[in-house]
Design a protein that fits this description.
Pfam families: Glycolipid_bind. InterPro entries: Glycolipid-bd_prot_put. This is Transcriptional regulator. With 196 residues, the chain is mainly β. It has one domain. The longest helix is centred in the middle third of the chain and has 7 residues. The chain starts with a strand and ends in an 8-residue tail after the last strand.
Length: 196
């Protein structure tokens, strides 16, 4: 029986948005899925996504469906677990070496490196992520780092853009507060135990 929980975030910066997300754990991995409803430059944006990971929290598959300005678009990513990617079924060598996916419209994918790296307090880990930008649906590599500041607190840095933020997480690695950008506003805990 999968261990499932649901959360909801409100985005306070760069135009309001609301996201309902789901974490489903199974013995062989986890699936992160959800729906984002955002005001993007004053226009409605809807994003539905699903990210499938293996038992080590390495991204395996990503499905994104977006509705923006009356246009429906989809994106599919596949990952072999060792750093090679496909984009819509074709090899994507520009993403070679990426382990995680980073959905720019959602805080949920921060849970991937938080869980995968399993850092001790005071440690820093480097990440190369396939960064999906919205609403362009462009995928580019991004150099990132996570520093564990406390039991449930991390400092995220994008070495690509220079952006940095502190992220508070729960026992499953899901963000509760992401700087002044996202805030958790609802939670339905699942069964089973989370990370320590």
């Amino acid at each position: 029986m999968p261990d499932t929980r649901e959360v909801m975030w409100f985005r306070m910066a760069d135009g309001p948005s609301l996201e309902q997300a789901r974490l489903e754990r199974q013995p062989d991995g986890a699936t992160l899925s959800g729906t984002v409803l955002a005001a993007e430059r004053g226009r409605p944006l809807r994003v539905d996504y699903a990210v499938t990971c293996d038992h080590r929290w390495r991204t395996v598959q990503v499905a994104v469906d977006q509705s923006f300005e009356g246009v429906l678009r989809s994106l599919r990513l596949g990952h072999d677990g060792a750093g090679a990617w496909t984009l819509d079924g074709r090899p994507a060598p520009s993403l070679d070496g990426c382990i995680d996916v980073d959905l720019g419209v959602s805080p949920i994918t921060n849970a991937l490196p938080v869980n995968r790296l399993a850092l001790a307090v005071g440690e820093t880990g480097s990440v190369r992520a396939a960064w999906v930008r919205f609403p362009a649906l462009e995928v580019v590599p991004a150099e990132q780092s996570y520093e564990r500041l406390g039991a449930r607190l991390y400092r995220y840095r994008s070495r690509t853009s220079g952006f940095a933020a502190e992220i508070a997480v729960d026992a499953d690695g899901l963000p509760t507060d992401y700087a002044d950008i996202w805030r958790r506003v609802a939670d339905r805990p699942g069964g089973g135990s989370g990370r320590g």
